[in-house]
Fold:
Amino acid sequence: MDQKVKFPIKGFREGLLVSMGEGNWQNLADELFAQIDGNLEFFKGAKIAINVDERKLKAAEIIKLRDKLADRDVTLFALLSKSAATDAVAETLGLSTRKSDLKSGGSEIPRALHGGESALLIRKTLRSGTSVKFAGDVIVDGDVNPGAEIIASGSIYIWGVLRGTAHAGIDGSGKEIIAALEIESSNLRIANIDYHEPKIKVRIKKKAEKVFIDGENLKIVDWDQHKRLE
Amino acid sequence: MTAKIITVTSGKGGVGKTTATANIAVALAQMGQRVVCLDADIGLRNLDVVLGLENRIVYDLVDVVEGRCRLKQAMIRDKRFDELHLIPAAQTRDKNAVSPSDMMKLGDELREEADWVIIDSPAGIERGFRNAIAPADEILVVTNPDVSAVRDADRIIGLIEAEQKEPAKLIINRMHPEMVQRGDMLDAEDVLELLAIKLIGIVPEDEHVIVSTNVGKPVVLEEKSMAGQAFRNISRRLMGDEVPLLNLEFKDDFLTKLSRIFK
Structure:
């Protein structure tokens, strides 16, 4: 019998990696389900990662894929893509998006950070468990809660309260800043310098703040007390 | 009228999901509503114990899903309310025995049987959680006023947002008014500022809860219990009534007590 494999499936330490090709998403998904249904014994209980490459997927599409896989007792644990938008959706759904998660070791610097100069605007609060990695500046219209992280090659501006992790200028010049309406976190890093002083939460003062590199250390000052470094 | 499906979840374990589920269900039944409780915590079932129905279990959720019994056969009638039923979880299986679409199918069948379906979710963010929220029309997130429970609640709320469900509502459970006053506990305002979702009730710490769990008689059945009052209020809010929050009632209580002293 001609058991033609439609998708390259590779075995990893944590599970299987399926690479979806080009074409209509619904058709591809149906073919994948058909392939699994034709070999249920093999796939039963499997954990799979799906590589969608450049394709942009909506939350609803990922949810449907995940739930249909779950019906077949297959766990979708990671979604690999080259689209920052798809990555962000997958992250909020609790899926892994890093190829390095599939292998031991691997590059620590996220793939997305090798792009060009641009800014990412996020119009929501980043809740615990969310991770945003971007090559450029990141602007958040909302809070960054404890357990959420932003890793950017540029500066980070938060129009809200920073309570989570912010790492600016990951491969930058050291001139990047982290700014927020309120900084209630000490998980701060610019370039390779960490914030050391314990930050005491002062609730009375409601003033925008920013973090910058001052000599060997990071320093937090009020927004208007320090001119942007040129 | 078809039932509204409500899932009670939390992320962190031990914050009071099962207690909240049982009490909300009983309070709704007290108001004459037809209620079905569904224990989705497969492998770690508890809701039957809290409701005092553990000795009546014959069939469970997995039996229904796998077609070993009809839906009605797995619905255990409560001792106190004829219109309150429980579908227990299987104790000898795990969460993978059921899928999100199984739960949606079951939810749709239950809509015809009741006014309310209240689903008790397992802790965690994995398959069991997704099973529990799949059929939900409304999701209640239970948290305690402590940093770790709040962080897990935040994670869960993010996952619910990502599923493009209706925004979840919050129950803050086990609040110690005295500890808040001393500044030793997060107050409701701190919790709400971080989580930024609608509050549906604050339940005070109450010894009655432990006693009631042990004897299988939900605390809403205790007239004098503050926690019971809080759960009755939550149920009335679910029904659409405007009920003032209990933390305000605390202040009132404190002031009335104070005024009584100074009379």
